[in-house]
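Researcher: Good morning. I'm working through a list of sequences from a screen, and I'd like to move beyond sequence-only analysis. For each chain I'm collecting a predicted structure so we can compare shapes side by side. This is the next one on the list. No need for commentary yet; just the structure.
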Amino acid sequence: MILAMTGPIEEQDFRLGWSLWRRAHQAVAKRCHKAAHAAKHQPPRGRLLEPARPAPTTSTTTMPLSTRISAPLLTDKNWELVRALMPPQKPRTGRPRKDNRTVLAGMLWVFGSGGSWRDLPEEEFGPWPTVYGRYRKWREEGLWQRIVKVLQF
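Model: Good morning. Structure tokens for this chain:
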């Protein structure tokens, strides 16, 4: 900064303005980082596990909404029809993949409930990025279209 102040007056004004802007920007960024870090390490408050869409009124069961939606969509019979289409469960290298049946049930839950990917109950179907990532991959490979054709809901 001292060297910058020894130059022409126009350069001094520019450098001083830049330095002030930079320090202000860094202060804002630091506050945002601290707030994000604090929010990340606090327990979640009232996280919704069910979509905002109301449950059907004809059902009088006390099962969770996620079970009511996914259970009829991926029965053992449907799974047997789809199993032959699925890629191998164990990759050649790396970490073992999440179970294909669980991931497929998660996809069907999202489409059946009308909820977002982020509303997917992690306890039942695993992390939503895993389910969504697998859906995108299967869709790009054309596997998703074959799954839908086999199931024909």
